[in-house]
Specification:
By secondary structure, this protein is an alpha/beta fold. It is 42% helix and 12% strand. Strand 1, helix 1 and strand 2 form a beta-alpha-beta unit. About 17% of the residues have low confidence.
C-alpha cells in the first residue's frame, strides 16, 4: 500500500461525474457497514486515485492511448472464450494498473451499459482472465448512470418533495417514483437495492478482506 491513506482504490470511469457518484456511494456504505471507520477521518482509511497516486481517476477513453504508449496488448481469448464488448479494453486498463509503480489495493470499473448488457460480461471476462494483484469491483449502471441519481432521490424524497412536485408539473409524474418506466431514450432499469450492492458492498468486503476482518 502506498500514499497517506491505509488503502488505495482506483476508479476507471467515463467522466468525473461517474467518479463522484461511485465514490460517494461507496464511502456512504463503508461508513455504515465498517464500524471501525470514523467518517470524520475517512481520508485516513481510503484514497481514491487513478493510474497514478496523484490522479483522481482513469477515464476509459484514455486507456487505448496509454496502453499503446506502453506497448500493452490485449488480444486473444478469455479463458477459452472470445472477448465480448469492452473485454479487451478492460484487460488493457487492468494491465496498466498491474504494471504501474504503485498498484492499488482495489479497482472500481464504472460504466454505463447503454442498453448493451454484454458490456457487463466483457468486464467480467477481463476480471476473471488473470490473477490480478488487486481486487476488482464492477459498478455497472443499466442503462445509464442517471438511473442511479434518480434512484438515490428516493432516499430523500420527503426533503425534496417540493422539487419533485415541481418536476411533476412538466414531466407528468414524479421521476423518482417511476424509475422503471423512464425513457431516455430507451427504457431505464434500476433499483435502489441493486445500486448500493453493485457500487458499494463489494468495496466493504474488499476492505474487510484486506484488513483481515471477517466478511459478513
Amino acid at each position: 500500500m502506498s500514499g497517506s491513506a491505509a488503502y488505495t482504490f482506483a476508479v476507471v470511469c467515463e467522466a468525473a461525474a461517474d467518479l463522484r457518484l461511485a465514490a460517494d456511494l461507496a464511502d456512504r456504505i463503508l461508513c455504515q457497514e465498517v464500524k471501525w471507520i470514523d467518517p470524520e477521518n475517512l481520508d485516513l482509511y481510503r484514497q481514491w486515485r487513478g493510474l497514478e497516486l496523484t490522479d483522481s481517476n482513469l477515464e476509459w477513453h484514455w486507456v487505448y492511448r496509454l496502453a499503446k504508449k506502453q506497448n500493452l496488448r490485449a488480444h486473444g481469448h478469455f479463458r477459452g472464450e472470445p472477448g465480448v464488448l469492452d473485454a479487451a479494453l478492460t484487460r488493457k486498463a487492468l494491465l496498466l494498473f498491474a504494471k504501474s509503480r504503485h498498484p492499488p489495493d482495489a479497482i472500481i470499473l464504472s460504466c454505463d451499459t447503454d442498453d448493451k448488457e454484454e458490456r457487463r460480461r466483457g468486464l467480467e471476462q477481463a476480471r476473471s482472465a488473470s490473477q490480478w494483484p488487486f481486487a476488482i469491483i464492477l459498478a455497472v449502471a443499466h442503462t445509464k448512470r442517471e438511473c442511479w441519481v434518480l434512484a438515490g432521490s428516493i432516499l430523500a424524497l420527503s426533503q425534496r418533495r417540493v422539487c419533485l412536485l415541481s418536476s411533476d408539473v412538466s414531466l407528468g409524474s414524479i421521476p423518482a417514483c417511476r424509475l422503471r418506466s423512464l425513457q431516455q431514450p430507451r427504457r431505464m432499469l434500476c433499483g435502489t437495492q441493486s445500486v448500493f450492492w453493485i457500487a458499494s458492498w463489494p468495496v466493504v468486503r474488499t476492505v474487510k478482506r484486506i484488513a483481515g476482518r471477517p466478511v459478513i
